């Protein structure tokens, strides 16, 4: 979407609505969520669900509302905490309706608007809207009977008002499961992290230390083939086998098989989604199953623990890290932490 055009239109409409002598309505603070970082690529268009201020405000309400769950106790924010960059801080969460531990780590929700490679660790959802239906209905997560969701929300005047504002073209039935998914997706696309010290350097507002510069050189040489820095997103939105395992059992719905579980292509065995490396200070533990508690353990894996297999990413077959390179790399990764993102009051209702 063209955010500048959208903002201009909203402001223009506000101007038209005010007559001489009227007191202008205060600008909605959430308008700031629609801004795009100047140094990021343009957001991919989503013609079937264009982001609007009203849709984002509605999605934000829904994200924190435990009544979306089967027991009225679990919200999206139960497993995606703002202060943890929308991760949950545990290896395998058990905060869902059933209380059973999940089989995969809850991923952070960062810069999802630019992700076009598929969602979940195995890419099982092609877009955010379809991804949301998974945790919403899964018995170990929110365990919601989606067939009754719209009817329940329709009994709440505040929601009816916000759905009408967000989806004015759906005059007959603005409160629908489809629009719940759309509103949540619109909100999640505004979870933009672009205020780390690294970003200040890119924008010319700060300079790197010598060690940060050294670490960035190590990163570019040894990490950027998957965690793309050129776009400043620090992910290629792809799927890679990073040598965590060399066997992939078929139990638990073939969850250890990674991308192969979706595509059934032998070349995808053991491949998982490349996460962004932004905000690592807030998103531990790491990997699709949360097996590493610290970044030092992650680097130990890449330096000494890679398990060869037929689908191991080629860039990892000869990877080596010296002690000095590790030290510098950790300093650079620390410059990708965006404290303002974890404390942004606009992300909360």
How does this model look, in words?
It comes from Spirosoma oryzae. Heme c 2 binds at residues 223, 226-227. Keywords: Heme, Iron, Metal-binding, Oxidoreductase, Periplasm, Peroxidase, Signal. Residues 210-337 form the Cytochrome c domain. InterPro entries: Cyt_c-like_dom, Cyt_c-like_dom_sf, Cytochrome_c_Peroxidase/MauG, Di-haem_cyt_c_peroxidsae, MauG/Cytc_peroxidase. It is a single chain. The protein is an all-alpha fold and 349 residues long. The protein folds into 2 domains: 3-192, Cytochrome c-like domain (Cytochrome Bc1 Complex, Chain D, domain 2); 197-341, Orthogonal Bundle (Cytochrome Bc1 Complex, Chain D, domain 2), CATH 1.10.760.10. The protein has 14 helices and 2 strands, in the order H-H-H-H-H-H-H-H-H-E-H-H-E-H-H-H. It has a two-stranded antiparallel sheet. Helix 2 (53-63) runs antiparallel to helix 6 and helix 9 (210-222) crosses helix 13 (323-334). The longest helix is centred in the first third of the chain and has 15 residues, at 3-17. The chain is globular. The model is unreliable at 1-26 (pLDDT under 50).
């Amino acid at each position: 979407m063209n955010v500048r055009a959208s903002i201009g239109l909203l402001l223009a409409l506000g101007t038209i609505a005010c007559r001489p002598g009227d007191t202008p309505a205060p600008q909605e603070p959430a308008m700031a969520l629609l801004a795009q970082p100047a140094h990021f690529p343009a957001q991919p268009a989503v013609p079937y669900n264009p982001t609007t201020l009203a849709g984002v405000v509605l999605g934000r309400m829904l994200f924190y509302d435990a009544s979306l769950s089967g027991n009225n106790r679990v919200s999206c924010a139960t497993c995606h905490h703002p202060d943890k960059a929308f991760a949950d801080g545990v290896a395998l969460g058990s905060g869902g309706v059933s209380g059973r531990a999940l089989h995969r780590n809850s991923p952070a929700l960062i810069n999802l608007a630019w992700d076009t490679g598929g969602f979940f660790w195995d890419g099982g959802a092609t877009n955010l809207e379809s991804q949301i239906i998974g945790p919403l209905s899964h018995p170990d997560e929110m365990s919601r009977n989606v067939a009754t969701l719209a009817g329940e929300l329709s009994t709440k005047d505040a929601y009816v008002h916000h759905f009408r504002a967000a989806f004015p073209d759906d005059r007959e039935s603005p409160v629908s499961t489809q629009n719940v998914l759309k509103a949540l997706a619109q909100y999640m696309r505004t979870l933009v992290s672009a205020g780390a010290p690294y970003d200040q350097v890119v924008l010319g507002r700060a300079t790197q230390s010598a060690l940060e510069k050294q670490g960035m050189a190590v990163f570019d040489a040894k990490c950027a083939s998957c965690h793309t820095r050129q776009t400043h997103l620090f992910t290629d939105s792809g799927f890679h086998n990073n040598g965590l395992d060399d066997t992939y059992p078929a139990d638990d719905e073939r969850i250890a098989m990674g991308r192969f579980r979706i595509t059934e292509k032998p070349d995808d065995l053991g491949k998982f989604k490349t996460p962004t490396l932004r905000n690592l200070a807030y998103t531990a533990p790491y990997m699709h199953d949360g097996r590493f508690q610290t970044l030092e353990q992650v680097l130990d894996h890449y330096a000494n623990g890679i398990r060869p297999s037929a689908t191991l990413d080629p860039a990892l077959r000869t990877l080596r890290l010296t002690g000095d390179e590790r030290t510098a790399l950790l300093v650079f990764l620390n410059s990708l932490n965006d404290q303002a993102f974890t404390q942004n009051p606009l992300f909360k209702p």
